[in-house]
Amino acid sequence: MHTKTTHQWQHDHIFGQDRVRPGERRTLWVIFITATMMVVEITTGLAYGSMALLADGLHMASHTAALGITTIAYVYTRRCAADSRFCFGTGKVNAFAGYTSAVLLALFALLMAWESLNRMFNPVEIAFNQAIAVAVLGLIVNGASMFMLGGQHHGHDHDHDHDHDHDHDHDHQHSHAHADHNLRAAYLHVLADALTSLLAIFALLAGKFLGLNWMDPLMGIVGATLVARWSLGLIRDTSGILLDHQAPGAILEQTRSAIEAIDDNRVTDLHVWSIGPGIYSATITVVSDMPRPPEHYKNLIPEKLGIVHTIVEVHHCRH
Question: Does 249-316 carry CATH code 2.40.10.10?
């Protein structure tokens, strides 16, 4: 069969991954702000003897590295979107970056807890006024970073034209909160920074006015515990994508219902998995006593589900 004849059955697997995502540019600004504040907090934490402040600075160090991973992932995803080595495009780079950031978050939570326990049994003198001032500044910076990254919803649109796997053209606009795990990881990092800054302020005030110096390392432990919980949640979500877990039950049910609602179709095998932020691939086996071409069943799937790559197998059964 000649190339000109087969060209109409071929298609790319970019799925909009070559476009700049909403969080990419703002992440660059947040990296600059976070790195600057990291240096200030670590320096003053060591100088003024505040474990909570030092923990916040160390936490910011991990987040600076994690935010760097976020940016690298965005750039790599765009530049390699058309690379044929990726079966379904570079969408999973997003989840891989989020997973890596979550692991870093967990490791630094352990470091925070260890250092806090050490200070609990080996307390040092704290210069409260200076430490409180820096902690307040850190909270303001973290709040600004959260504002820059917060409320960013993943959106994508694409034109996907082919007859073999998905035969209808469409411009798919799909918003899905938290679908961009790379951006979610960046947001969790600055959120954790804001939390540790807030806890540091609370601990330092308690130590200054009530003499409760032990509150400083205690708040470091509390912050580490909360950060560890956030990181484990992100690890669970991103690892599910990397290991090709089934899509959420609502997507599976709507896909099945859309096909079985027509004629006497039965979906006997259904696999839907994530291939990028808010987009999915599917393989479907349909049994019918009035079988139609695969294109017919693909067209029944609602575009809002974000299923951009579909393979349908049809079997004829008279009963």
Answer: no
Work out whether strand 279-288 and strand 307-316 pair parallel, antiparallel, or are unpaired. Answer: parallel
Other C-beta atoms within 10 Å of 85: how many?
6
Whole-model pTM: value is 0.72
- Domain extent listing, the chain: 11-242, 249-316
**Residue 64 and residue 112: Cα distance in Å, rounded?**
16
User: Residue 114's Cα: distance from chain center in Å?
Assistant: 27
Q: Is there a contact between 278 and 174 (Cβ–Cβ < 8 Å)? A: yes
Tokens matching residue 241? 């994508």
Query: Of 23-32, 166-175, 303-312, which gets the smallest average pLDDT?
Result: 166-175
For the residues 83-89, what does the mean pLDDT come to?
A: 82
Q: What is the CA radius of gyration of the chain?
A: 25
Query: Reduced to 3 DSSP states, what percent helix, strand and coil does the chain have, rounded to the nearest 5?
Result: 60, 15, 25
Rounded Cα distance between 120 and 31, Å, is: 32
Does the 11-242 domain belong in CATH 1.20.1510.10? yes
Report d(CA 311, CA 65) in Å as an integer. Answer: 40
Other beta carbons within 10 angstroms of residue 10's beta carbon come to: 12
Please say if the pLDDT value at position 157 is more than 50.
no
HSE-up (13 A, CA, CB side) for residue 171: 0
If we measure between CA atoms, which residue out of 283, 273, 280 comes closest to residue 313?
283
CA dist list (Å): 211 to 214, 215, 222, 249:
9, 9, 19, 53
